Structures are given as C-alpha cells and as structure tokens.
Amino acid sequence: MSFQLNGVPLLSRSAVDRAEEVRADEQALKEGWAQARLLRVNKRGQVRFTDAVPVLDAAIELSAEPSPAAVFLGWGEGVHVWAVRDNEIAGALRDLRAAGNDVDDYTANLLSTAVALLNWHDNAGFHAADGSVTMASKGGWSRVTESGFEEFPRIDPAVICLIHDGADRVLLARQHTWPETLFSLLAGFVEAGESLERCVEREVKEEVGVDVRDIHYLGSQPWPFPRSLMLGFAAVADPDQPLTFSDGEIAEAYWFSRAEVRDALAVGDWSAQRTGQRLLLPGSISIARTIVESWAALDG
Asked: Residue 194: is it exposed, middle or buried by C-beta count within 10 angstroms (0-12/13-18/19+)?
C-alpha cells in the first residue's frame, strides 16, 4: 500500500527570505546592519522567547558593523536578520524541540537555519585539507583561507524509513537512550559511495535484521542536530521475519497496528508521558511524525 506525505514537515516549510543575492555584497550587509535584528543562540540551540516569539535584539548592540561571528539569515519584516552564538543569554529559553508545537513556519525556519549554520562554524575554524585557519565570509555562508580555499556548510544526509507490512501494521523501534514508551522510525547516515535506497536496505538490516522491498521516497527535512538532512522513505517488510538487533543501537522494536498508532497520535507526542501508555511518538518538528501521520491516515 503506497502513500505520500499529507503535509510539508515543519522544518521544511521555507518561510524565510534567505536573500542569497545579499550574502556576497559586503556593502549591502554593512548598510543593513544599522537596522538589523539579531538572534542570540546558546550552545544548546536555545534562544530567548517571549510567548511563542523569539527575542531579536538590535544588531548594533553586538558591534558597529557586521561581526564575523554572526551569520546572515535573510530578510525579516523589512530588515536584515542575523544570528550569533551567545552562551550568556538568560531568561525564558527554548530550543526547537521544545518550541516546535507553538511556533509558526517563519520562526521554525529561522531557528533551524541559525542553529545549523552556527553549529557548522563552531567546528570549521581550520581547513580540512591543510589545517590552515579559515575566516567567515559571505555573511557566514562560507569560510575561506588566506590562500583562497573556500568551504561551505556541511550537511550530513541521513535516511529515515517507515516500514510497513503492506496492510495495517508498522514497525517502530526504540533506542536505548529513549524513554521506555517512545518509538519511532528507523534511521541512519548515508555512507560514502552509497545510494539512498541501498542505505535504507543496509540500515534496516543492521538495526532490526529484516529485509525491505518496494522502497519509495516521501520527502526531506533539515535536522540541525547538529547538521543533518533527513530523507524520508517508506518500505515494505515481512512481519514474520525475526527481529534481531545486531548493531546495538536498538533496544526493542515491535509491529504496531494502525489503530494503535492512531491512538498514540491522539495522545500527543513523547512529552505527554501518560501513565499506562504503551506507545508514544516523536514530536511535531520531526519528519518522523509527518510520515507516521500520513501512513496512519490511510483507510484500512
């Protein structure tokens, strides 16, 4: 039984004008800095919130001109918007995971971009080829060495797959570090020289020991924890094939009925922690939630 996503995953909704044409224009960035707004993000990816709105400070409070420590996010309400790492911020702090249910598309897109870029800069101070120092350029969208070598933000592709039996059962798994009732889809990083479909086959076999077929692509979502791109798939497997957990990542996995999944979706997400609830599912910012909701909505 084939299906498609019934909505765009939250972090995939492009609501920010990223203004690519401005990044390399140093004069435009300088001129816009005087009125620009600044999002302060700590090492944990948290920002200050007022209700469901992130706090944006005046950029000139940071420096008189664009700071090399800041990254340009684009346009917002007619002014430039930047982000900077600031581990001293205080107040009502929230990250994307905590705020996902409450923020609009613009805020979600803004935060995911800021977190991803700042995470990259934290670990990109030296060039991978020769170890030379790199400096931020193009509003933080690249880093260059004195000799002119340029690097761009790194993205790690990972597949995430809903495995079903072709009827009304789905295979969900729990990692060792997760709460005892939280189950989700199987996922893993794409290896060098590997296609996405082959990655789905390998990861599922390694994690739960089953063979999959009829693999088809559903959609994608950025996942800035720290710098992934999640590529969603669905595939079919035989529920009678024994489950084995050979790679040590999965603590347990079970086949759940569509009715059980619908009941879990009605409860909320993993943060609900309802007493006696056998199954809790990922939150709204994860593409896993969108995929599960789309499968659960099928007739049957």
From this structure: middle
pTM above 0.85, yes or no: yes
Is the C-alpha dihedral spanning 79, 85, 88, 91 positive or negative?
A: positive
Contact 158, 135 (CB under 8 A): no
User: For residue 68, is the peptide bond before it cis, meaning its omega torsion is within 30 degrees of 0?
Assistant: no
The predicted-structure confidence for 102-159, as pLDDT tens digits, reads as follows 889 999 999 999 999 999 999 999 998 899 999 999 999 999 999 999 999 999 999 9
Distance of alpha carbon 298 from alpha carbon 290, whole angstroms: 13
Beta strands at 79-85 and 70-76: parallel, antiparallel or unpaired: antiparallel
Question: Token pair for residue 170?
Answer: 């789905």
What is the sign, positive or negative, of the torsion defined by CA atoms of 52, 53, 54, 55?
Answer: negative
